[in-house]
Structures are given as structure tokens and as C-alpha cells.
Amino acid sequence: MDWLIIIGAIISIIGLVGLVASAVQVMRAKKAGLQDDALKARMQKALVLNMGALALSTLGLMVVVLGIFLA
Length: 71
What we know:
Elements: H1 2-31, H2 36-70
Helix pairs in contact: 1-2
């Protein structure tokens, strides 16, 4: 079941990359000096990416734990 652990780790890393990308989007949006409506729209897009990346990372960690239990 080592392959399950490796796949889970890869999924978790992809999720972490998404979380970093979300943080970068938020920092860029704040530095852009946008009006409230435009800033809110960008934050909503970043929130969708953030939640998806968090879910992907959690799923990857669950696969890792499953692989450890089955090993």
C-alpha cells in the first residue's frame, strides 16, 4: 500500500500549492488598490480556490492515513 501513501502525498502537495496560490491572489488583490466591489469579486474567486485546495489537501491526507492503515 506504499503507492496509496505516495498518491495521497502528491494530492496533498497539490492542495498546498493551491493554498499558496490563493494567498498570492489575495495579496495581489490587496496591493492593486481596487474599489470595494472589485476587491470583493477577487476575494470571492480566491475563496473558491482556497476552499477547493483545502478540500484537495484534506482528501490527500485521508488517502495517506488509509494507506498507512492498510500497510
